[in-house]
Amino acid sequence: MSLLRLLFEPGFFSSAPVHTAVVIGAVTAVVSAVVGVFTVVRSQSFAGHALTDIATTGGSGAVYFGISPLAGFIGGGVAGGGAMDLIGVQRVRSRDLATGIVLGAATGLAALFLYLDATQSATTGVTQQILFGSIFTVSSSTIPAVVFFSAAVLLVIGAIYRPLLLSSVSPELASVRGVGLRVVGLLFMLALAVAVGLSSIAIGSILSTALLIGPAATALRLTRSIRGAMVVACLLGIATTWLGILLAYDSDYWDPSSQGLPVSFFIVAIAFLLYLLSGLAGVRRHVGRRDGDIPAREACGLGDDTTAKAVA
Amino acid sequence: MFAGFMVNAWEIATIVAVVAGIVGFFVVLRGSAFPAHAIPNGAFAGAAGANLIGINPLVGLGAFALLAALGIGTLGRRGRRDVVTALALVLMLAIGAAFLSQSTEYEPEIFSLLFGEILGVSSGEILPVAILGLACVIAVGVLYRRLLLTSIIPEIAAAKGLQPHRVELAFLIVLACATTMTVPVVGALLIFTLMIGPPAAARCFTNRPGLALIISVAIALVTVWAAIACSFETNWPVGFYVGTYSAAGYGVGRAYAAWERRRGAQLGNKAR
């Protein structure tokens, strides 16, 4: 009992913000993990991160135009994802650039919206709220919308699972077999944009990227199949989120004289540590090349048998 | 528009544009847009930390930028580079959030670190920025051939005994240096935009690296000058104009490249 009290500071289980955080955290962790595995395999981490900033632009625009922030975040993300696809995020050569150009334009717009927000209304704290977010400040009324869009993202991924898998691990093979690379790529970008927009508004842009990339990259180092990686990534994502919430809640009690540390700090620190540890855990057999464009199979430890299975 | 306080803005903008145009050219060539975004954004955590313990924010900024460059450079050798960059970035941002939660930092401070306040530059800030900028340009000059070889024809670079990861690390450090000098004056977001848009546009106009470098600097200069002028007239943030004009510049570049291709094809048809 005393050990339990040591772990969980008083009021942890009865606090309403904690309940909301635990639910929202778990839902976004699962969606991020599933989408994240494909994001990492397709080397689109930059796009995955940039979309949080672009969704944020949508969010600050929504504040200015007085529409729902959720619509702003998701609309901004989808518009950004579409623009990246248009410039050529699917091609290896221009992937980095397409993301960078769209991100640059979007942050410029964000500067304008935040400036206009600040001059028009006395909404103090908007900048910090939009940029950093906090899982503890999510209102419980957001939960239904988050669950709805999460289900939509998972459905899309489920519907295009096979062609997506094939085009991710072996684009050449996929095009030979007549998979519409362009359509699959675009659908994935849009699913990624919605997932990222959702998690940015629910848990903040820092955590959005952390939960998208961290657990997925860790899981891909530990498992040998995409399906296995997804399961492991989901579990890691949920565990990381919940542990982070617990530590952040407890940290308010560690030192009575100072404020507790933000939940994003703990979740990111745990995710980063897990990634480093998974590197030590002996996945030495896949020492990656230095350059960015590692063939997906090699990089995530997928042998040819997996590709073969995906084809079959 | 050219009153006393504005002169500082024009001068600093010119220095920043030249450095961004040169360093950015290699950012685009090497596909390093993600590190170029991660290093300045992550370095802001260092400024927050320096504020917390009461030292010069520039020191914190420089330390974190360097740390980020070294971290991405070394960890990226073993893992996938984009994954490592993403995780390094969020780790630094999270540390920054932790610093901010412990201090009584108020909002405009964050806003100015991210978006910069180029119109509020004091004349004392110009010299250090100029010196660091010159150091970056000299470093790029020294590394020029190595950077080109390892990015364009890695096979020849390897045959010549160049170690790509060392060149990469050196380049990331140059990037960190360029970041430290520019973030306090123009903001983390703006410097990224300047390092991507103009060089990407320049590459649409020519394949020759030397010429592209010059065009890149020229476009960067026009972009910031136009942005400052418009910002002065309308009072809207400089970052907005830099972002919009950079994207527009790239759009023009792509249109030119497409037109050039079509013209080339037509000439080919006529010859036949």
Describe this structure in words.
Chain A has helices spanning 2-7, 16-41, 45-65, 69-87, 92-120, 126-132, 143-159, 161-169, 171-176, 181-203, 205-222, 226-254, 263-280, 296-299, 304-311. Chain A is mainly α and 312 residues long. Chain A has a single domain (2-311), classed as ABC transporter involved in vitamin B12 uptake, BtuC, CATH 1.10.3470. In chain A, helix 7 (143-159) runs antiparallel to helix 10 and helix 10 (181-203) crosses helix 11 (205-222). The longest helix of chain A is centred in the middle third of the chain and has 29 residues, at 92-120. Chain A starts with a helix and ends with a helix. Residues 283-312 of chain A have low confidence and may be disordered. Chain B is mainly alpha-helical and 272 residues long. Chain B has a single domain (4-196), classed as ABC transporter involved in vitamin B12 uptake, BtuC (Orthogonal Bundle), CATH 1.10.3470.10. Chain B is 86% helix and 0% strand. Chain B has 11 helices and no strands. In chain B, helix 2 (33-53) packs across helix 8 (164-186) and helix 5 (107-115) packs across helix 8. In chain B, 54% of the residues are buried. At the A-B interface, helix 3, helix 5, helix 6, helix 11 and helix 13 of A face helix 2, helix 3, helix 4, helix 5 and helix 8 of B.
